[in-house]
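User: Can you model how S-adenosylmethionine sits in this protein?
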Amino acid sequence: MGFYGERVLPRILNAACGTKTVEPLRHRVCGGLAGDVVEIGFGSGLNVPFYPAAVTRVAAVEPSDAGWNLAARRLRATAVPVQRSGLDGQSLPFADNSYDAALSTWTLCTIPDVAAALAEVRRVLRPGGTLHFLEHGQAPDERVRRWQRRLDPLEQRIAGGCHFTRPIVDLLTTAGFTIEELDVFYEKGAPKFAGADSLGTAMSP
Ligand SMILES: C[S@@+](CC[C@H](N)C(=O)[O-])C[C@H]1O[C@@H](n2cnc3c(N)ncnc32)[C@H](O)[C@@H]1O
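Assistant: Here's the modeled complex, given as structure tokens:
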């Protein structure tokens, strides 16, 4: 990945994804999480302050050492046990049906084989377990989608493989999840091409 991907980008993401304006969204997506939770693309732990008390433990899956290290202060401040338990959402080192819930925020845009990652999340969730998601992706409006297609190659280069164009809800349903709750909106303060968000929960059958 090189110096930029390993050292610089995790700090940029920590700052860009750590703004006060997205805290209400993190609060919403973490609402209702309970029991043993796997979080894919844990990053610098920006969701940690929003884990509900009903969460018994979190298995953090994150490839970036720098991202994980940036989480230290948040990890010290939480009562929820969090362990870095995996490095790649595409291949989770967990038994089938071993988690009550999963969490993914602004990560399905970046994982190279997102279908493989969603299949893995389904495998490790117990039947009836839910994936809580907050993801940016393909916009509802064609005018915005055109810009997303134009800017996608640049975004992939500067943002560690991030795509603007992924159809989040289609990816979830194709992976076999049933959407339980869904809110699709443009994030306040973000350009529409980057802030077409889907927030909700999806159940593993
Ligand atoms: C935009 S950041 C979001 C981080 C965090 N979820 C948040 O909300 O602040 C995307 C994250 O996905 C991680 N990531 C990239 N490839 C991954 C993979 N194959 N498996 C799991 N996480 C991955 C990156 O290292 C990065 O931390």
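A couple of observations from the model: The CA atoms of residues 65 and 190 lie 27 Å apart. Residues 142-158 form the longest helix (17 residues).
User: Helpful, thanks.
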